[in-house]
Specification:
The chain folds into two domains: 207 residues, no CATH class; 172 residues, Maf protein, CATH 3.90.950.10. The chain contains nine helices and 15 strands. Helix 1 crosses helix 3 and helix 6 crosses helix 7. Strand 10, helix 4 and strand 11 form a beta-alpha-beta unit. The termini are far apart. By secondary structure, it is α/β, with parallel strands linked by helices. Helices cover 36% and strands 34% of the residues.
Length: 402
């Protein structure tokens, strides 16, 4: 008899549990989700739109896009100022996420009668208090659009496609959602041939934990949009220019490295502290010479002799400075100098000594003496690349190594 009662009790308990579960999944959970989703969506929308209103205003087309014309005055290319676009997007993302962080836990009161299908009495009765905590991040996609607006006229628009992702954390579930909007940065009317075809270009950059996806930059048969990082190096030496280009293309796409001579204001053969000071002086003098606001980085490299580690060796010191003036330094591997050549190198310079020893001419403009010393295992290109790669570590790791 006891066994029969226990069995009946178990069946009743199972039926009650099944009924409660069904009622929750079909009635309670959808209503809870819709209420919390609507509340969190509103919070994310407010955080995003408030940031847009604060950060996006008075941006001119010419500040983010440069035009190139041929000798006949015909527009042949558009160059995106990636530094300025990155800055705008980065500031907008940080503002959105700061606004999200300021959001307090929100309370939602849901009328109990809603769960009972009581129709007209749905807004009445006891209320269930639900707390939601929206947590999220932001992704910005830069979009370039061309649109025909008349005879030989094309509208070019630069937009930011903003996606604010947020996570709804309630007592009974966790859901991921997204608020999306588009922001017009700038636009202009281009007079000339109307483009007839296009190809997509993808370019992605990472800043700290912020993902900036630069998509949909369009290439046309007659007008092309080119995204180029502009780097100016304080030399006309082709091996240094190529070494720098190799270093930057390890981290960035579409890099243009331009050589402009600038004085080091130190000895012809820098010794010890003069290596770093000479490279810094070249960058400072370079910035006085080049007034182009589209330059992303000003760089220089100085080769010289040092005994700071207890023995004489030749090393390269590189300096990189961005347009805001943030500076980083790096050095290459060093190679030893026999004592018998030290004084001659200091009095003249390494290039002349190397030319004499190996009976060569202008090794400095070729692969360098290091190529001969290492039997072509290393070259001056490699040492230049090494020094700039080391200096770039401050710029390619966001705030972690800044």
């Amino acid at each position: 008899m006891r066994k029969e009662k226990s069995f009946v009790f178990f069946l009743v308990l199972l039926v009650v549990f099944s009924s409660v579960t069904t009622f929750y999944t079909q009635k309670i959970e959808p209503i809870l989700y819709n209420f919390t989703k609507s509340n969190a969506y509103g919070l994310a929308m407010n955080a995003t739109e408030k940031a847009i209103f604060s950060k996006i205003h008075n941006i001119s087309y010419d500040s983010i896009i440069s035009k190139q014309y041929d000798k006949n005055g015909k527009l042949v290319a558009l160059y995106a100022n990636t530094g300025e676009i990155n800055k705008i997007s980065n500031e907008l993302i940080l503002e959105i996420e700061n606004n999200i962080l300021k959001i307090d836990v929100s309370n939602i009161n849901i009328p109990l009668a809603l769960f009972m299908d009581l129709g007209v009495f749905g807004g009445e009765g006891a209320k269930i208090n639900i707390k939601t905590i929206p947590l999220g991040d932001t992704k910005i996609e830069c979009v370039s659009q061309f649109e025909s607006v008349g005879i030989n006229q094309t509208r070019h628009r630069i937009l930011l496609d903003v996606n604010t992702y947020y996570t709804i954390i309630s007592p009974v579930y966790i859901r991921n959602e997204c608020y999306h909007t588009e922001v017009l940065l700038a636009e202009t009317i281009i007079n000339g041939d109307i483009p007839s075809s296009y190809t997509n270009l993808d370019l992605t950059k990472l800043y700290d934990n912020i993902s900036l996806s630069w998509l949909h930059f369009l290439f046309y048969d007659k007008i092309s949009l080119v995204i180029t990082m502009k780097v100016i190096i304080a030399t006309k030496n082709p091996t240094k220019i190529e070494g720098a280009r190799r270093a930057f293309t390890k981290f960035f796409e579409d890099v243009e490295v331009i050589g402009v001579p600038a004085n080091s204001d130190v000895s012809e053969e820098p010794v010890n502290e003069e290596l770093l000071q000479g490279a810094k002086n070249r960058v400072a003098n370079l910035r006085k010479i080049v007034q182009d606001t589209d330059v992303d980085y000003f760089i220089a490299i100085e080769s010289g002799i040092t005994d700071r580690l207890g023995a004489w060796e030749i090393i390269n010191m590189a300096v990189i400075e961005d347009k805001e003036g943030k500076q980083s330094v790096g050095s290459s591997a060093g190679f030893p100098v026999p004592d018998e050549y030290v004084d001659e190198i200091i009095e003249t310079d390494l290039g002349r000594v190397m030319d004499r020893i190996f009976n060569e001419d202008e090794l400095r403009s070729k692969a360098g003496g290091i190529a001969l010393l290492t039997h072509d295992v290393m070259s001056r290109y490699d040492l230049t690349e090494q020094a700039f790669v080391m200096a770039l570590t401050r710029f390619v790791n966001g705030g972690v190594w800044n």
